[in-house]
Fold:
Amino acid sequence: MKIVTLGPSGGIDLPAEALQESGIQPGSPVVVLAREGRILLLDQQRFRERVEKPVQEMLARFRRSMEQQPQAPFFDGLTYEEYAALSEEDEQALWDRLTAAADKQVQSAERDIPPHFRPAGQKRR
Structure:
C-alpha cells in the first residue's frame, strides 16, 4: 500500500507498481466510480466487457420478457405498468424501503465477520 497526495486540481500520480499490477497503462481511458470516501478507477475496456455488455444483455432479455408477459411482476411485485405509473414520491418511498432492507442485510452479514478475519493477502497491522 502506498499513500499518494491529491494535487491542487485533484489530480494524482499513481505509483508505477499500482499501474503494473492493474494492467492499466498511462494514457489509457478509465471509468471513475465514486462513493463516499472512495474513488475507484477501472480500465474502460474491461468495464465495458464486465458491466455494459451484461447490462445490455439483461435489458434485451427484459424487453423480450415484457413483450411475452406484460402483466408479469416486474419489480417488488409490481408489473412494469404499475411501476411506471408510480409518482416520484411513491417511487422514492419504494426505493428508500428497499435500500433500508438491503442495508440491514449488509449490516447483519458484516456483524457476523469474526474480528480476527483478514481477507486473503492482507497482513495484520
In short: The chain has a mean pLDDT of 84.
